[in-house]
Amino acid sequence: MRTTRKFFKRMKRLLVPTGHMLYRAIYWLILSRVIKLSVGVAAETKRFACGFPLAVRRTKEEFARSCLAGVRFLVFLPLLAVRRHCRAIVTALNIAAPAAAVFALIFTIQFWSGMTFALSVEYDGQKLGYISEETVYDDAANMATSRVINADNSFEVQRVPKLSIAVVSKSDILDEGAVCDKILESSGDSIAEGSGLYVNGCFEGAAQSRSQLEAMLDLLLDKHRTKSANERVEFLQDVEVVDGLYPISSITSVKSLHERLTELTMVDKYYKIVKGDSPLLISAKTDMSLEQLRSLNPNFDKQIFPDVDVLIQKAQPFLQVKVVRTVEYTETVDYKVQTIQDSNKYVGYSAVRTNGVEGKRQVKAEITLLDGIEQSRKILETKVIKKPIDKVVVKGSKKFNPSAGDGIATGRFRWPLPSCRMISSPYAYRWGRFHHGIDISGNGVYGKPVIASDGGRVVETNIGYGGGFGNYVILEHGGGYRTVYAHLSSVLVKTGQNVSQGQQIGRAGNTGYSKGAHLHFEIRLNGRSVNPVSYLK
After folding, report:
1. How do residues 345-364 score in pLDDT, each as one tens digit?
2. Dihedral sign, Cα of residue 318, residue 324, residue 328, residue 331
3. Cross-strand pairs, 337
4. How many domains are there within the chain?
């Protein structure tokens, strides 16, 4: 505490004289002059105020002497006032002159800071204005040229204008768009105000009415709207309407622009299916994915037959519309198939122990369509509302002797082509005559195993054309029943051989009079054909 008190005493002895000295310096430099000026201003103000009564009294005295003396006094009164207050006026000028100089300096700096060097552009004898550099004119010339559908070459922009240097305000400098409008204005009566339509930055034409042009574009979008709150409809291309000055030759009707935007730039293209084609092979040949083929052809997988046309390219308008829509729907959930091996049944035997039941789920998805054709589907949310039940299939694992089946007929007929259950041609009239069997065909049946529908004996086989049946096998099952298996690619049994139910007797093919890989199957009773569907399990 003693040390602190000593420190503050010493600082006081040092700082107090310094403070007095600073106060005297400030007083001498500023305060004394301010006080002196204030006293002088007050005295001069008082003297100025006293001058009015004095001037009035002197004026009365002069007019009392004579009217001429009074008028002369009034004329010279301002000079007398200036002489009386000469020192105050000089002092005021000394104070005001620096302030005025500062103001003039600020005004000058501000004025010249808003000025810059520019190029004055003269086009076709007319002054267009000022630009910052030559490239601005080049860009404006290109912009003016792009606004013109110059079919008759009647419009031309001078590429070398007359340029001169000038000092102008920055606000007077024009950009590319303004220079472009002035270039077009210089063309006189061949220019009119309009609204230009640009697609992906390319000028397609101009219309006089912007409202009609926008209404036409909205009409193109309305064709794809469903008034759903969860959809977004827009053009695939970048479409822009720009107001400005356009040559008369480039202004057309809204109807003509509508025809231009809706004209087809691509036409429908088809691929004709040939013998041996499959979905994957068609996909490879056409360089398209299965999803694209299915989106263009709703029944694609069910129409894989020779001479069938598959759409591989759909006609597209010049201006395409993209729709992004959120939808909710219910779809089935496939059941799984469980296989159980039964050693008491021959290979090829197959029976359903438990039927599969498809499940259901609620799906929320975002789909993208282009001109009404689905391009992609993004699943946002799924909810299972019904679980699927697995299908249980019993298959035989007992190997059979190809040369000696048991030949036992059960009296119940099984499906002869386990790999496919699609009937492509039923037991009915076709092509002007009756079809005495059923044709079983579908995706990739060629070479698939064909089994005996029931046990029995091989009574007839054929390798060759066979009256149109191609390679075929006929089995006798007793009780007047026979079954026919035609158009086989290969026959695996011989005449007189006993076969068991489910035993493989051949492979599906395309021999004889056939337009595609399939199995022709008949059931005959006492020599007359019957509808196989009524007998098949």
Report:
1. 766 567 888 999 999 999 99
2. positive
3. 391
4. 4
Question: Is the domain of 99 the same as that of 148?
Answer: no
Q: SS3 letters for 96-155? A: HHHHHHHHHHHHHHHHHHCEEEEEEEEECCEEEEEECCHHHHHHHHHHHHHCCCCCCCCC
Give me the domain span that covers residue 462: 401-534
Of the pLDDT bands very low, low, confident and very high (cuts 50, 70, 90), residue 152 is: very low
CA angle 134/136/140 to nearest 5° reads 125
Looking up tokens 């597209």 gives: 316
Local structure of 378: helix, strand or coil: strand
How many angstroms separate the CA atoms of 166 and 175, rounded?
16
Torsion of CA 135, 137, 140, 141, to 10 degrees: -110
CATH of residue 381's domain is 2.20.230.10
- The answer to whether position 391 is within a domain reads yes
Q: Which amino acid is at 478?
A: G
Nearest Cα to Cα of residue 337 among 324, 350, 346: 350
- Residue 471 half-sphere exposure, CB side, CA atoms within 13 Å? 20
**Residue 510: closest CA among 429, 452, 432, 424:** 424
Q: Which amino acid is at 441?
A: S
Q: What is the C-alpha to C-alpha distance for residues 426 and 441, in angstroms, rounded to an integer? A: 11
Say what the pTM is: 0.41
